[in-house]
Amino acid sequence: MDDATKALIVLGLVVALFMWNKLPVGSVAILAALTLWATGLVTTEQAVGGFGDPVVIFIATLFVVSEGIDSTGVTTWAGRWLIDRAGTERTRVLMAVCLLSALLTSLITLNGAVAALLPLVVLLGQRIGTPPSQLLMPVAFAGSAGGLLMLMSSPVNVIVSDAAAESGEGPFSFFSFSLVGIPLLLGTVAICLLFGRRLLPTRMPDYMPPDLGRYAEMVSSHYNVGGAIGEQAPDLITREAGVAEVVVPPRSRLVGERVHAGMRREHDLVILAVQRLGRDLGDEPIEVAEGDALLLHGRWSELDALKSRLNAA
């Protein structure tokens, strides 16, 4: 069996494993390299040479940057900014999510950008009454076009530029792909806007996640939270902290305890408001009775610990 046939067989097995989708992608890649080495198609140095290749290292850093942008809340901030300004008109929302997808892809990677936008796009579809499928596919199309806006926008761009440099043609400049990427992006968005309703599938999921985007404002209004706390209502729920509504059960050790709005209890939880029979009790100290509802604010870890204590009680 010649080397070309061996290589085709290994390639076919790799494709089959990818389609099977039971093994991690990294494991399949390592197995492919080991198989090529075991069959004599590559040397030991060639089999492990990719781990030190500058292109591979650069691609790995793109994933690190992608996760860093998402973890620091940049995509969340961009999503909230988009929701506040795009409104509920379908054309404006569709154009906004497509351009945002292309922009994020040009800065990180297509997979990272689309994964970060998925919850936002589903939420937008829920708010404007549009099937998420008619927003998600344009996001993927625009993201693919955004991969041609800059050199770092796609690992493929880096690989091609590196190959051109090795062949003696010289690497591509940072914005050389934009000559094709910008017209492609504009054409993609235009097609989605003009023909999207007829060409894109109309599918609704069996389960839609709840829209919690205005939860902080809702509880602030429901509990009549006033003063400086009320002015900060949109910031009650962040990546670090949130709010929880707690109903005092019978025989709770809170019954009979005097509390007031703004009071900090154990575990750094702040009482924002207290209600009894649906009526807000104001800022004056009161004695807690069974059935009272307390609005608490604190770190997510503390709220989770409170939930565990209440479930165990």
Can you give a write-up of this model?
This protein has three domains: 50 residues; 132 residues; 98 residues, Regulator of K+ conductance, C-terminal domain (Alpha-Beta Plaits), CATH 3.30.70. It is α+β, with helices and mostly antiparallel strands and 313 residues long. The chain is elongated and about 85 Å long. The protein starts with a helix and ends with a helix. 57% of the residues lie in helices and 10% in strands. Strands 1, 3, 4, 5 and 7 form a five-stranded antiparallel beta sheet that branches. A two-stranded antiparallel ribbon has the order 2-6.
| Distance between the first and last residues' Cα | 70 Å
General shape: elongated
Mean pLDDT: 79
- Rg to the nearest angstrom? 27 Å
Number of strands: 7
Alpha plus pi helix count: 13
Which percent range describes the beta-strand content? 5-15%
* Topology as a string of helices (H) and strands (E): HHHHHHHHHHHHEEEEEEEH
Summed up, the domain count is 3
Q: Which stretches of 5+ consecutive residues score pLDDT under 50?
A: none
The level of helicity is 55-70%
SSE-based structural type: alpha+beta
Biggest beta sheet summary: 5 strands, antiparallel
